[in-house]
Design brief:
about 180 residues; mainly beta; Immunoglobulin-like; three-stranded antiparallel beta sheet
Amino acid sequence: MMSSNILRCGAALFVVSLAALPACKKSGEDVGAVAQLRNPEGGLVGEATFEEVEGGVRIHFEGQNLPPGTHGFHIHQNGECMSPSFESAGDHFNPTNMQHGLENPAGPHAGDLPNLEVDINGRAEVDVIAKGVTLDQSGAASLVAGNGTALIIHADPDDQVTDPSGNAGARIACGVIRMQ
């Protein structure tokens, strides 16, 4: 007969057998990198976590206080977010010299991601895999090597085909991707 223990994970209480005792994860554990996205005024509008998975990096983004609608969402080549335009983040992350767009037969850039949908309350949450990139500390496909890269939200939707940026418009939020 196995005794049971009470294990506290987060806000929930679980009664479990010692043999089936799952490990509790702290917030941010097993996440390799993070980016806090800010608007041009410096206000925090979201956070993204980055976790290496088979074939790429999983990005989980949660945002608030964003303009409702559809927005381009990309990884850019420079780990800089200078307000107000965020042009310091450079072009899309493109270590393989492809054309822009998830629907472009000659693409995509490694930094091309699906559009971000923001609800009428200014909130967004998405999980997406950035294929062909890594969180290794070196290499052309690394999001964190050298000065790193940045995650950008654009004002308009990305058309997913037009090179070099999908006509996604101005950059309205930016966050440097940093290892935890």
